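My current task is to audit a protein record that another person submitted. Alongside the sequence sits a line of tokens, each denoting a local backbone shape. Please read both lines and tell me whether the tokens look consistent with the sequence. Do not assume that whoever made the record got everything right. Thanks in advance; the entry in question is below.
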Amino acid sequence: MRGALLLLPLLAACGSGGGDTVAALGCSGELRLRNQGPVMVEQAFVSARGPGDWGPDLLAPGTLPPGAEQVVRGTPGRNAVRIVFANGRAAEIPSLDVCATPSLGIQPTGLLASR
């Protein structure tokens, strides 16, 4: 019984979505972007504060051509992600856990998160 009680604070912290706890468990907040579509990606944003508070373009000063991939860094835990294509179209995921799904496929039909 005592062992189970010692696990409770750890389990509670894991479920709370706290970035510090997630980072302590080995998540760096890295997100691998893979451009699997035919259109160049001009901008990528990852924000722990959510849509509307994007911050800097994480690809600047470069871009992500079709077939290429690049690792960007968000905050460990849940982040909003926005991708802007060269044709002006954009795609967003309002809440992506970058620790559970650290890879993002950028496809012509949208964004696909995976391990």
Summary: The beta strands are 30-35, 41-47, 69-73, 78-85, 90-97, 103-107, 110-114.
